[in-house]
Structure prediction request, 327 residues.
Amino acid sequence: MKVAVFGTKPYDRKFLEAAASGAGHELTFLEPRLSAETAALAEGHEAVCVFVHDKLSREALQTLHEGGTRFVALRCAGFNNVDLEAARELGIGVARVPAYSPYAVAEHAVGLILSLNRKLHRAYNRAREGNFALEGLLGFDIHGKTVGVVGIGRIGHAFANIMRGFGCRVLVHDAFTTNDEFENVSLEQLLRESDIVSLHCPLTPETFHLINTQTIAQMKPGAMLINTSRGGLVDAVAVLEPLRSGHLSALGLDVYEEEDGIFYEDHGGAVWGDDTLMLLMAFPNVLITGHQAFFTREALENIAHTTMENLSQWEKSGTCANCVSSD
Prediction:
């Protein structure tokens, strides 16, 4: 199968080529992201392979269809960037990678917590300048604290287990399921009682801006907020004043609502301009990473392998185990 791979970085090519060896798929690596403007680049390819920042609107899908594309292989778990109804109408299959490494994302969330709590990022920069003073670096024992986990899928479950290993009380909230291993509570109770709140749920119309002015007001004063899931879960403007006032003691973001065009690119020396993001980065109690939580060797190997499996299954039978639909 001829596959156009959009948004290609060197690491994508390395792992996808290794997984494609012997699978019989012909990969064409393209640097641009897929959008309505770039979809014509896939002409003559039976499938496209895309990532989280590719935009598969109805217009983009129509162009893909006219160029002969009949399958979209997402190399990620989320699919909110795909117009699934349009894909169904056009007869274009869509498949995702539902589980690549829950440990990668869960461990990154824990890393953000540890760094923010013990001010490791600030201490590192101070030490490089010869400043070994401890003033301003005071943290707290994580042991014995209450941690709220919003979303108890594979990643949320892995994260909850790690925090339980720290000796934390773990509260979980999931709109669709419960988990008997942990204390299942309402979102209101979780926000009210948690010293640390970590988001591990998908972005849907129901969860868009789940963290907003009203829900932040419900949070325990001085709580820490972590988001390694999807940027749209957090209203970034709404967290500014709580960070100033101390109602939020710290914020760790691996994702950002307006990250498209910013994350995964080197903007050093350039004025790339997102006022809210620049304000957040000026706070000493905010730590932002560039959507790298998934970025481990094991995760990239699993993503590439599952993507090739999805392509092979579709080529053979016109469907695959990881297909998603608009239903």
The chain has eleven helices and 13 strands. The CA atoms of residues 39 and 60 lie 6 Å apart. The first strand starts at residue 2 and ends at 5.
